[in-house]
Structures are given as C-alpha cells and as structure tokens.
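Cross-check.
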Amino acid sequence: MESRTLPRNPTRAVRIGSVTIGAGHPIAVQSMTATHTQDIDKTVEQILALERAGADVVRVAVDSRKDADALLEIARQTTANLVVDLQENYRLAELVAPHVQKLRYNPGHLYHHEREKPWQEKVRYIADVAREHDCALRVGVNCGSMDPDKKLKYDPADSISPMLESALDHCELLDSVAFPRYCVSLKDSDPKKVIEANRRFAELRPDVPLHLGVTEAGMPPDGIIKTRIAFEQLISRGIGDTIRVSLTVPNSRKPEEIEAGRKILEDISEGRVRSVVNYGLPTLNIISCPSCSRVENEAFIELAQDVKAMTEYARDHAITIAVMGCRVNGPGETDDADLGLWCGPNFVNLKKGPEELGAYPYDEILPRLRQELDALIASRAASAAS
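Predicted model, tokenized:
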C-alpha cells in the first residue's frame, strides 16, 4: 500500500520541551512510567528505555511531596521531555513545574482537595505556575473521574456530554487568562466513546490540540486493537496531535506502548487498518488490515497487493475497497466499505456494503471484484447524469 498524506486539523502549536504538537507537526508518541516514582533508579531506567523506544514525551505520576522530591532527582538524570501527572493535590504543581516540560491535571480530581475553593481558582493557579516555569498543560478529562456538577446535569447513561462540557469549560477559562499553551484529552475505556467524544470536541474547538488514548485498554493484543480502532477513526479524519497506547504489561515491556503507537501511525498512513476509515479522499481508497496472527492464509497479503494493482484504472473514483485478513475483523468491519473482501483459509468473501455477495477461491476473486467495481462506477455515473 502506498503512503498517503493524512489530513490534520488546523490546531495551534503547543511546545512540550523539545517537541511541538499541533499546527501540522508530526504526531507525538508518549507513554507513562509504571514504576513507583520514589524508586528513582527504576523510574530513570524506565524513562531511558521509553526514550530508546522512541518516546517523544514521558509522563510520571506525582501523588505526594516525597514523589515531588524524587522527581527532582529523576529530572537531573534524564533529558526526556517529562510530564507530571498531578493527581488530587494540585498544589504540587509549584514543586514539580521547575523540573518538567508539561503539567497534566484532571478536572474531576480538582474537587478532591480544598473543596471549598472553586475549580476556576485552582486552574488559574496551575496556569500561573505553568506560565512561570515554561510548561505546557494538558486538561485530561477521564470518564472515570468527572466533574460531579457536570455529571448531575445529564442522564447517567450519557458519559460523553459531561466530559465534553468539562473540557470546553476549562478551555474557555484558560483562554480567558491568556494561556494558549494547552492540549486536551477525552478518554474512555470504550473506543466508540473515545471516537465520539473527540469528534464532537474537534468540531467545536478545532484549534485545540488533542491527546488521544483509550483508558484501561488492557493486555495486548486486545488492548492494541481497541486503541487502534479509536485512532484509525480519529487520525484518518485529521483529529489527534499526540497519542498514548495504554497497555497492561510488566514494567520491562513498557516500551511496547511506544512501539505499538508508532506502528499504528505507520499503518494508518499506509492504509493498513482494522476498521473502515474515511481519509476524505476524492479518489479510490484501498485499505487493508495489518497482517497478524489471526490471518488464516498468507495469500491475503499478496491479495491486498493485487487488489491495489488491479484497481488502478479506477483511481479517480471516490470508492472505498477494504481487504481484511480474517473472519474476526472481516465480516463486520467491511460493512462501511463500498466493496469489501474478508479472507478465510480457502475462500475470499465478497461484500457490497453490508450485503454478502458470496465466497470465491483466491484465484477467482479478482475478476469477480472487478465486475462489482465496474457496476458500481456505472451506477454512480448513471445517477450523476440523471
């Protein structure tokens, strides 16, 4: 599959140390340490391992004064772009900001400390600290810890609207204090909710860079697949400026989050995806899933290449053809393509949208696909002429 230039939302630039996100800069890949922050040696070791894997940014949790003291020494021993994950004690910001490049706070957590103070006062304090110490900010909205006032306004089944309203309110406040150097994340453990929340936010605030992620994604490969689907649907539409793949893995395997993130970005660019995506192309759009252990016949890989070559004559037609490698992803995830192929051990199943057209041997599928492609082109031409 050929590389394609992905569309990007016109977000503003936000610098995080030596890395800049937004404004067309490459999508940054980040991870988070899983070590105890006060275990300085192990935390530094993990940061260095993540850097070697290609991490642009590394996040460290700080929950206490002792964690903040440990962070000072950690920062001395690494040149990584560090983000501090402020938990409930937002006032730790002033202790850690001189040693990091970015502060992340969760609007829901602001209610757990100094409850008598309005959240607006707390955010102004965080923004002032960030400004003083040359730090960026991330407003990290999470489905599991939301602003209680926002939750009460909506149906309990609607977790997206309170997340969205919270994020927008915090953006408005940061704008009002002239602090534009921030990004936003809206995370959930359900990839569908991640897609909807970020799409809705991007429509309302296309200027704000977005950090994408699926919380509690789980162990690989399932955690990677859940994250991949959310990223495919968002990044293919120009949404997303930095990403984190959250996996349940032992500490020694933490760099796999970076490797998975970079692989997903590469695959989206090459059209190797697990879900049907819309690249916004006015031309032929051929996508194929990345090869994995679920592929039951390696002929799938050659077939994807053959489909690309055979359909070259239709390159000026806005038609999506999906080539999926297995029965797990193929049947449902070709529904949104104009024409879909999902591959079994001995046969290739052909679909037109959600309609099943039959199963064909590998050596017979290309001519049959061409028949359907020609019929689709002719049908659209007739509709345009009428």
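The chain has two domains: 14-270, 285-385. Residues 155 and 161 are 9 Å apart (CA to CA). Passed to J.P. for a second look.
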